[in-house]
Specification:
Structural class: mainly alpha
Length: 77
């Protein structure tokens, strides 16, 4: 097998769905944080503290949702 070929592991469909959902949520969170950081670094873009706070809150919500998507359900002993 050459290094250019990717090893594809067959995942349980539900696990694959949860990973895809978490990946999407992480991408959204990354975008929100990037926009917020740009507004902090370049205030001439006209962003105010409220907009920055909204972006950071949105990112935190996406991170929480991503964590929940990956959470493993545990049975109580």
């Amino acid at each position: 097998m050459t290094s250019s070929k990717k090893l594809r592991i067959k995942l349980d469909p539900e696990l694959e769905r949860r990973i895809n959902e978490a990946t999407s949520r992480l991408e959204k969170a990354e975008h929100e944080l990037t926009v917020a950081m740009e507004a902090i670094i370049a205030p001439e873009l006209g962003a105010d503290n409220e907009m920055i706070g909204d972006r950071v809150r949105s990112a935190l919500q996406e991170l929480g949702a991503a964590r929940q998507a990956l959470a493993v359900e545990r049975a109580d002993p």
